[in-house]
Protein: UPF0102 protein B5C34_04490
Amino acid sequence: MRAGRAEDRRAAERRGRRAETTAAWFLRFKGYRILDRRVRVRAGEVDLVARRGATVVFVEVKARPDEAAADAAIAPGRLSRVRAAAEQLWPRYAEGAEGARIDAVILLPRRWPLHIVGVG
Structure:
């Protein structure tokens, strides 16, 4: 039974990495420069750090089976760890930037990615 859980975790990890790669390419297409991926600090993890113009964007990527699950995944309370991690990471990426924000990229089956600006 434990082996099954480990396999489930590895499969979830692979799905997460694929979702982040898709989101990174989508944001590049929209004119963002990806600065970092999967950045971890004591407060939590940020999936992608991007920049467009003078704005640093901390991006949470969510791959979900439907819109209801996606809405629940980016509820304000759910983003508190991302917000705390972004605050710790800001000094690392602040040089030359005028501001920062937290965005989300939602990936749903058989749809274009949905980029939600300023969720946090």
